[in-house]
Amino acid sequence: MASEFSTLLRRLRREAGMTQEALAERAGVGVRTVRGLETGERADPRVTTVRLLADALGLAPEEREELLAAVVRRTGPGDEPDTPDDAAERVAPVAGRPGPADRVAPSAGHQGEGPADGAEPVGGYPHDGSAERVAPVAAHPGDGSAARAAPVTEPRGPVSHGTLADVAEQLAQAVAARWQREEEQRQVHDPYPLPVRWRPALEELTDHWANIRRLPAGAVPGPLDLSGRLDAIVEVYRRVPSGRLVVLGRPGSGKTVLAVRFVLEQVKSRGRTGTVPVIFSIGSWDPTAITLRDWLIAQLTRDHPGLAAPGPGGSSLAAALVETGRVLPVLDGFDEIAGGLRRPALEALNSTVLPLLLTSRPSEYAAAVAETDVLTSAAAVQLTDLTPGDLADYLPRTTRKAGGGDPAATAWDPVLRELRDRPDSRAGANLAAVLTTPLMVMLARAVYSDTSGHDPAALLDTRRFGSAEELEEHLLDKFTTTVYRPRPEHRPGGGPRRSFDPERARQWLGHLAHHLTRLDTPNLEWWRLGSGTRRSTRTLVTAVAVALTVGLVDAVVGTLFDPVGFQLADGLVAGLLAGLMFGITYWFLIASRGAAVAPSGVRLKMFGRAGGTGRRTAHRLAVGLLCGVVFGSGYGFVRGVLNGVVRHCGLLVTLRVGLDDGVVYGLVFALATGPTFGVLSLLETPLDVRSAVNPVGLLRTNCRTVVAQLLIWAPTFGLLVALGAWGAMRILPALLGPLVWNTTATLKLGLISGLGGALAYALALTGWGQWLVFGRFWLPLTGRLPWSVVTFLEDAYERGVLRQAGAVYQFRHARLQDHLARAHRTSRGSQRPAGPGGAEPTE
């Protein structure tokens, strides 16, 4: 029976004017596959197969999404069972939709009908197969099958969102969607990808061929042919038996573009049991602080919060994917690791046998190799320069025709003519040295092809640009000015693009670049925007924010119980004490360690089963009790001493009042904080596996989580404080003597503690609160960032200045970041950035 998907596929094929045979040949699948999908005989087509068909049909994005959506709608418990030939066409969950537990990968003897079927793990890295184990059962009489595969369920701990194979498939879909958008954002295919070619690297940067080819002792090895170009990167990688490849290239030569293309092609051709390629910006890794596997797991969890959910054996899904070899690390930017850490990083990489693809600038990698050794079992290739012929083919197609007598003439003709006819001239030599990397060509295109009124013939002016370095600086400088020029275009589905003054935008981008240089990381994380300031400044600003918030809450709420004048004074004291106590806490827990409060990877579930466990709840309860005792005792002691001083009590009386208040508040806050933390833990549940995030998405998710925490924390904490105070007043007078307390004081303490304590905790000890304090107020207030920071960052991403790498932003290229940071330091008169490890900034 034909389904919606079958009807849609048949209609799209006919609109494309293709026969079933032609579609099958172009997509690289069997004719029987296409025929079965159109008639409805084949249920649950693989997503990779549907993608191949969509590519072969040349579908527009809307039609492509419609076809994939039809796959999701047809997948359900009522589907007919597959025939044996359909085994290679099973679809894994789309957009995070888990499939039934009895779906299995094709058996070892089954031959798939296309390149996406039955693909083996790249590099031969073994999986544990726990989610894929099948047991043959007797053939069903008359069905023509040699054997059927019966599922063996996962024997270990629960996987809340399906088997590991399902999770890996969902991760693959999220990764592909993310980097597909990134390619579109960078205009990689407009009008076509610049040619990125490579040749084998120097032998001293490559391991022994016997190790690369995994040959037994005594075998005579020979080198592999690893030359190729961008569209063949997966094919070249698969020629390497060890599955370990190093890609070297000078700045802007296309290493990241190659990594993105590798990921997209690998995902497109992977089978259900194949590894999932994931790009990791390795520049943020400190190998002396965390192992490679733990760092990979942490990065996966940051970019895909749902992978923090429990997996087999009690570990997280991210840990299970890494440990079972289902993730193929694409480690981009080895050269961006801090100089003193590259040697231990290479040694740590050599201590593993993980298949991987590593990119780096040649000099930094060669220096690390000279200090230790090559990457074990790794082949190496080096990207080559673009040729004048490449420029002659590409640049004229990026701009409008010049008009006049020659319809093929463009504004780039004088530049291309100089490169072709006078390569030894000063202008030709400068151009030949600069326009040999995709980065500089794309910058030149942005400045002179995508902008009216700019003539590329200006690049021939040797009086302005006496050297190749000056020409590069000109392109980098003009790029930011050009992309922020006023433009009338509208956002898709929205209003006009937000305009920013080019000079102010350069200042703000310069601050961000300088901030990343100080932290020695390429990752622009919204929760660490305040980390670029001095530790003392961070602590002081946080303490002031808490003091103002608690003081305001105390003053406003307290007027319900006491006169305004008294309450203003009480609010001032309460705010100062809260700011002092939270400032001390913030200093010891965060600032003094050079750390930052990471965003939460959970959400709160009010109804239904949440993700809390007894062990985690007990741990949070203990931590809450300890924090309550420490904070309450300190707060009570300081408050009691101040009251004694204000009332001119003697020293001994003052100390006695302080100790008594310390005991009372310590007990009250301990009995309130511990259970509140426990309640929050019981309501926490990991984010969904398919919740791959971008920076803005993660910010909004954490905002909702913190708001939900406040809505639970405030009434729960306030009620427990009130009950604790009431109970303490019944017990403690027998131990401490008469205490002045009443019901009004109990209600007042409960309300103020609930509201003020929740807000103070959110501002000082949550990632979103730190973003609010620094990203929304302090940095804009001091002129370092605009007031609409999120809008500015998203706009910079849309203009191509920033790129997204999972949950963080990065500058489009490290060369651009260096240029903006250097310009910022020059304008600020500050020449010395902080070193690695969070050294004290000067701002």
UniProtKB/TrEMBL annotation:
Pfam families named among the record's database cross-references: HTH_31, NACHT
Segments forming domain HTH cro/C1-type: 9-64
A molecular-function term among this protein's GO annotations: DNA binding
Region spans: Disordered: 74-160, 821-843
Keywords, ordered alphabetically: Membrane, Transmembrane, Transmembrane helix
Transmembrane stretches, start-end: 427-448, 540-561, 573-600, 621-642, 662-683, 710-729, 749-774
Annotated protein name in UniProt: HTH cro/C1-type domain-containing protein
Lineage, top ranks: Bacteria, Bacillati, Actinomycetota, Actinomycetes, Kitasatosporales
